[in-house]
UniProtKB/TrEMBL annotation, chain A:
Residues 14-203 form the ABC transmembrane type-1 domain. InterPro entries: AA_ABC_transptr_permease_3TM (IPR010065), ArtM/GltK/GlnP/TcyL/YhdX-like (IPR043429), Ectoine_EhuC (IPR014342), MetI-like (IPR000515), MetI-like_sf (IPR035906). It is found in: Cell membrane. GO terms for cellular component: ATP-binding cassette (ABC) transporter complex. PROSITE patterns: ABC_TM1. This is Ectoine/hydroxyectoine ABC transporter permease subunit EhuC. Belongs to the binding-protein-dependent transport system permease family. It is a multi-pass membrane protein. It comes from Streptomyces purpureus. GO terms for molecular function: transmembrane transporter activity. The chain crosses the membrane at residues 12-36, 48-71, 77-98, 157-176, 182-199. CDD domains: TM_PBP2.
From TrEMBL, chain B:
Residues 19-207 form the ABC transmembrane type-1 domain. It comes from Streptomyces purpureus. GO terms for cellular component: ATP-binding cassette (ABC) transporter complex. PROSITE patterns: ABC_TM1. This is Ectoine/hydroxyectoine ABC transporter permease subunit EhuD. Its main location: membrane. CDD domains: TM_PBP2.
Length: 219, 216
């Protein structure tokens, strides 16, 4: 592999992968907390809708959803999504559904007495969530979120099938240009493994900090 | 744009062909994942650090890199090394290999959860190693981990569309071929998407029931 291939394809590809990861993680976190908290709402209708969302988006394959947003949605609604945004939307919506289950599990793991204490202090439901439930639930969710983030990182490779120029797509171009596969695909796999390592390490550091704030140690 | 039922009807034969391939990949891939996972799990517990460490690195590497890139790696690189497999075989191998690293973690957790007294009892009865594993440890471990393995089968199902990337004729690829011929993108892709929910949701209910049954 020459310097040109690195400079023109692989390095920009890595940057696109990082952008995709950041974008869909942000959207996914938003979806996860909204839907996850909605699943503990007191109204059954809200709980049902949130449950329906999780089941549908966890049931459908992320790649199918991506193709659907990219090929089916434009003629239906009359405007076209930029591939990058279709990718972020599909990844964020489907991985957000998995995240919602983590949020729900984390909230359910907070001792009931804590919620009751919030009621006794006549907090509004939102204050209860914001000041009592979430501060205790979030540190417990971090290890699961770390795993999900690794899954999301791996999921970003799917966008190369839509022609978004991420690092997998760059690998494909390099293969076409050099007519050799072993080198470039090994490099690509190593790049993903390194990115995953960075994600794991940062999440571990965050977990340690968050749990120190609660006075709990990390196993 | 309107929904066209006749396009759905036209897609039906291809859809069934695709579903058959998807299920075939799923069944064979699961078998590979279940057996190979057990091999990795045995590697985690090996006496020598020279076995444990490489097994740990290899499985961690496979688990943290994308299945899609692994598919391309096997599909393009194996022929360079003189190994010729069909796309379907490559895809099944890749998905089985990828998920074996997940099932390995599940097995490990299951085996670790077997009480130490069981191991000690097996030693006290001087059972040979294979009897200890096959008749004492694994039957108890498998009971605990069956639901977790079930969840990974569902996850594998949802990853089978990736095989379209190396032109395996599973459901997504069939819908792409149909769209390329008829220029109708809405119906085939939607049918496939709905099919995934229709298979995955009852399957997840099944796993949940299994979980509740085995918990007691």
């Amino acid at each position: 592999m020459t310097a040109g291939l690195w400079q023109n394809w692989i390095l920009p590809g890595i940057w696109i992968t990082i952008q995709l990861l950041a974008g869909s993680a942000a959207l996914g976190a938003l979806v996860a907390f909204t839907v996850g908290m909605a699943r503990t709402h007191r109204s059954p209708a809200v709980r049902f809708l949130a449950g329906l969302y999780t089941e549908v988006f966890r049931g459908v394959s992320a790649l199918i959803l991506m193709f659907w947003l990219f090929f089916v949605l434009p003629p239906l609604i009359g405007w076209q999504l930029v591939p990058m945004w279709a990718a972020i939307l599909a990844l964020g919506l489907s991985y957000g559904a998995y995240g919602a289950e983590i949020v729900r599990g984390g909230l359910n793991a907070v001792p009931v007495a804590q919620r009751e204490a919030g009621v006794a202090l006549s907090f509004t439901p939102w204050q209860r969530m914001r000041h009592v439930m979430l501060p205790q639930a979030v540190p417990e969710m971090i290890p699961s979120f770390c795993n999900l983030l690794i899954e999301l990182l791996k999921g970003t490779a799917l966008v190369s099938l839509l022609g978004v120029g991420d690092v997998s797509f760059a690998a494909y171009l390099v293969r076409l240009a050099t007519q050799q596969s072993a080198g470039i695909y090994t490099v690509t796999l190593v790049i993903y493994a390194l990115l995953a390592l960075v994600v794991t390490r940062s999440m571990k550091a965050w977990e340690k900090k968050a749990k120190a704030g609660l006075g709990v140690g990390v196993k | 744009m309107n929904w066209d039922w006749s396009a759905v009807a036209d897609f039906t034969p291809r859809f069934w062909d695709g579903l058959l391939v998807t299920l075939q990949v799923l069944v064979l891939g699961s078998l590979i994942a279940f057996t190979l996972g057990l091999v990795w799990a045995a590697g985690f517990r090996a006496g020598s650090r020279l076995v444990r460490w490489p097994v740990h690195v290899v499985t961690e590497f496979i688990r943290t890199t994308p299945l899609l890139v692994q598919l391309f790696f096997l599909f393009f690189v194996l022929p360079e090394w003189g190994v010729q497999f069909s796309a379907l075989t490559t895809g099944t191998l890749a998905i089985g290999l990828h998920y074996s690293t997940y099932t390995a973690q599940v097995y490990r957790a299951g085996i670790d959860a077997v009480p130490a007294g069981q191991w000690e009892a097996a030693t006290a009865l001087s059972l040979p190693a294979h009897r200890t594993w096959l008749t004492v440890i694994l039957p108890q471990a498998l009971r605990r981990i069956a639901p977790a393995l079930g969840n990974y089968v569902i996850a594998m199902l949802k990853d089978t569309p990736l095989l379209a990337g190396i032109s395996v004729l599973e459901m997504l690829q069939q819908s792409r071929l149909e769209s390329a011929e008829t220029f109708q993108y809405t119906e085939p892709l939607t049918v496939v998407g709905v099919a995934f929910v229709l298979i995955a949701y009852p399957a997840s209910l099944l796993v949940r029931t299994l979980e509740r049954r085995l918990a007691h």
